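A quick aside before the break. I want you to see a complete sequence-to-structure record at least once, exactly as it would be stored in a machine-readable document. Don't worry about memorizing anything.
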Amino acid sequence: MDIVYRIGHSLYLNITNRCTNTCSFCVRFKTDQLQGYNLKLAAEPTMEELIAAIGDPDQYREVVFCGYGEPLLRLPEVLAVAKYLKEKKVTVRLNTNGHGNLIYKRNIVPELAPYIDAVSVSLNAENAEKYQELCQPEFGPDTYQKVKEFILECKKYIRRVTVTAVALPEMDVKKMEQIVTGELGVTFRLRHNDDIMKEKSYGK
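That is the input. The structure line, written in tokens, reads:
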């Protein structure tokens, strides 16, 4: 199993395979492999194991919390490792499904803000009904709205916020972009499902 994996000039931290979504299009249901790395974890790595696996962080353009699960399910480890990286003056990005506030039943964004330079939130639908159908969140039909609220909180505290969506036949891309850039006022990035396994900067 690989708890870190390098693609291009970025290092990705694979800290959990657990997720609060069961997305119908998620690549983790198709393969354990990504560009020669095995992302199927036998056990979740400790903070000490992650720091040891990172090695010298100066060699990377950024370090990204993004594996085959939702990183914020391990918030203490995210905060501890991100704090270590910021002390080394490394750029830190978090890729998330935006469920963090639902998981912990509080606004965790201010806790993340001192250590996270950029956040990428996967939304993947232009309305709550479609999100529920495609992503099957464990928190139920209100999840879509709560993810949008999480994005707005990130916008208050974190310098770079991007919302991503996988290009699916069911999605109205134009409407999706209007929601992200208009209603939420952040950057939109469309991802193509066929390209995910070969992207140079893989992420949610």
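Two observations worth writing down. The mean pLDDT is 92. The longest strand covers residues 160-166. We'll return to this after the break.
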